[in-house]
């Protein structure tokens, strides 16, 4: 006999086929609404890859040189590393995201073009949520994802770059653990965990850019919420504002400059 599953302890994720190619100017809310109209339910989270959002919003640009597009999307350089294929650039882009190549994507787009990220991914998520809610008459959240590396780990994962109708983080500080000890630092990035989970069913080249997650209704909100931007670290809270080599060089240069300012024999 199967043991009963408590509410909130089960998660389902699936990516339906049949989306088709998205082109600039397409009504993405209508396309996704048609795709999901027979499977969506109250409390579901609709997860959409940024590629199709960018395509629908006309963020496809001609670029024979992807490097120039990366330069134009760079607000701040975090780190650069040479590799056999060229130079990897980790930069902050206009959306406030720190990513390799500023999030400029040359995959799944026509030769001679690149995809830029949506101008405002949170606003894109809000528009999609409004369209789906109005069309399907359900209470849902929307997450827009993109792929990124991580400072401490090899490999890439999908993370949330836009969100609406979702509690993007669950703050567990001040709550007891299983032994009664109070948690002091744990804030769970709910939106990022949803994004990563759905990448396992969407795939990178399977033609399934939309996924549905069921079982997280407790995180779906009545209002749009703060969006995925609330998960970004800035200023002193960003412990990786520079790459290790760049931080070492900056410290070394500062030390040399300080030594040069001292009087001889001081």
Automatic annotation (TrEMBL):
Keyword Acetylation: no
EC top class named in words: ligase
Keywords from the named record: GTP-binding, Ligase, Magnesium, Manganese, Metal-binding, Nucleotide-binding, Potassium
Superkingdom of source: Bacteria
One Pfam family per UniProt: F420_ligase
InterPro entries cross-referenced by the UniProt entry: F420-0_g-glutamyl_ligase, F420-0_gamma-glut_ligase-dom
Enzyme Commission number: 6.3.2.31
Domain Coenzyme F420:L-glutamate ligase-like: 19-215
Identification of the protein by name: Coenzyme F420-0:L-glutamate ligase
Organism: Actinotalea lenta
């Amino acid at each position: 006999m199967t043991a009963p599953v408590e509410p909130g302890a089960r998660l389902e994720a699936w990516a339906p086929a049949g989306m088709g190619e998205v082109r600039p100017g397409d009504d993405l809310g209508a396309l996704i609404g048609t795709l999901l109209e027979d499977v969506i339910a109250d409390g579901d989270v609709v997860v959409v890859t940024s590629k199709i959002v960018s395509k629908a919003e006309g963020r496809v640009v001609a670029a024979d040189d992807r490097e120039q597009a990366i330069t134009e999307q760079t607000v701040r350089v975090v780190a650069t590393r040479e590799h056999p294929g060229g130079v990897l650039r980790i930069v902050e882009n206009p959306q406030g995201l720190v990513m390799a190549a500023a999030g400029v994507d040359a995959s799944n787009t026509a030769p001679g073009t690149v995809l830029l990220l949506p101008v405002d991914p949170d606003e894109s998520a809000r528009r999609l949520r409004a369209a789906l809610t109005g069309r399907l008459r359900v209470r849902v959240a929307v997450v827009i994802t993109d792929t990124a590396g991580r400072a401490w780990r090899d490999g890439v994962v999908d993370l949330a770059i836009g969100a609406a109708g979702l509690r993007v983080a669950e703050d567990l500080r001040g709550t007891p653990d299983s032994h009664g000890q109070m948690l002091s630092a744990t804030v769970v990035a709910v939106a990022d965990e949803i994004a990563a989970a759905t990448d396992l069913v969407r795939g990178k080249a399977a033609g399934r850019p939309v996924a549905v997650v069921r079982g997280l209704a407790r995180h779906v909100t009545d209002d749009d919420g703060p969006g995925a931007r609330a998960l970004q670290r800035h200023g002193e809270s960003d412990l990786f504002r520079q790459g290790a080599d760049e931080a070492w060089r900056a410290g070394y240069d500062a030390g040399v400059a300080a030594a040069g300012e001292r009087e001889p024999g001081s």
